[in-house]
Amino acid sequence: MKQEGALLGLGRASIYDAPQFRLANTQEGKMAGMPYFITLGEAGYTNERRGNIFAVDANGDGTGTTQALNPDLLDEFAAITYEKNARMTDIFVGANLKRKINQLLSRQLSNEKEAQTTVQTIELTTGPVRLHLHPYMTDQYGLGDAILGGDFSFAKWAVLEEMNRELPTTDSAKQWEYYASACIQVTNAYAFAMMIGAK
Fold first, then answer.
1. How far apart are CA 149 and CA 54, in angstroms?
2. Spatial contact of 37 and 189, defined as CB atoms under 8 Å apart
3. Which residues pair with 46 in a beta bridge?
4. CA–CA separation, 126 and 83 (whole Å)
5. Rounded to two decimals, what is the model's pTM?
6. What pLDDT does residue 6 have?
7. What integer pLDDT is reported at residue 180 of this predicted model?
8. What's residue 26's pLDDT?
9. What is d(CA 92, CA 79) in angstroms, rounded to the nearest whole number?
10. Out of 8-17, 30-39, 87-96, 161-170, which region has the weakest mean confidence (pLDDT)?
11. DSSP per residue over the chain, as a string?
């Protein structure tokens, strides 16, 4: 669960914080989460965009009143990666926005033996997108109004470094200590986008 939180940038001062490298034994390293990569290095918002962050709130920067989610916003969101030569294949949302999507795409049932009330895939202008519910995308973690999407084949959890050292013991034997530094590895940040300010 800690790794899941780290992937979203939780535990940092801001989910957009850059990685902090471990340069000495007294300094800890901290990985950057997906939101950092999605900003594409941009510090502020211009025309509701900060890199591939799409702010749909009233102020266009994530600080204003949230806007009701609708199919047009989802299409515009998916187009962000499509215009960068990547196709959004998966979307992660919290429970509040998942319920909203279910309501948007509900239909009248008639003489059905089973009712499927949970939407699992949406057919957007850019193609089908799978929907996933994520437990950390809630108001408690500051992500209740956020949607994270992209082609996740361009990101993976990777071991960046592995080393070992020999430790002397009180006996004649010696033991080995192993270290590994794991981090998210994003090979194409343009393949991801994030919408904030939706309800």
1. 11
2. yes
3. 49
4. 10
5. 0.83
6. 86
7. 72
8. 78
9. 16
10. 161-170
11. -HHHHHHTTTTSSSTTPPPB---STTS--B---HHHHHTTT--S-BTTEETTEEE-STTSSSSS--B---HHHHHHHHHHHHTTT----EEEE-HHHHHHHHHHT-----S-SS---S--EEEETTEEEEEEE-TT-SGGGT-TT-EEEE-GGGEEEEEEEEEEEEEE-SSS-EEEEEEEEEEEEES-GGGEEEEESB-
Q: Name residue, tokens 């973690």.
A: 141
- 55's CB contacts (< 8 A; 6+ apart) are 45, 48, 49, 61, 62, 195, 196, 197
Question: How far is the C-alpha of 56 from the C-alpha of 67, rounded, in Å?
Answer: 6
d(CA 153, CA 60): 29
**Residue 109 pLDDT:** 65
Give the pLDDT band (50/70/90) at residue 184. confident
**HSE on the CB side for 68, CA within 13 Å?**
3
pLDDT at site 40: 96
**The length of the chain, given as a count of residues:** 199
pLDDT above 70 covers what percent of the chain? 91
What residue type is assigned to position 39 of the chain? T
Sign of the Cα pseudo-torsion (32, 35, 40, 44, in order): negative
Mean pLDDT of 95-116: 79
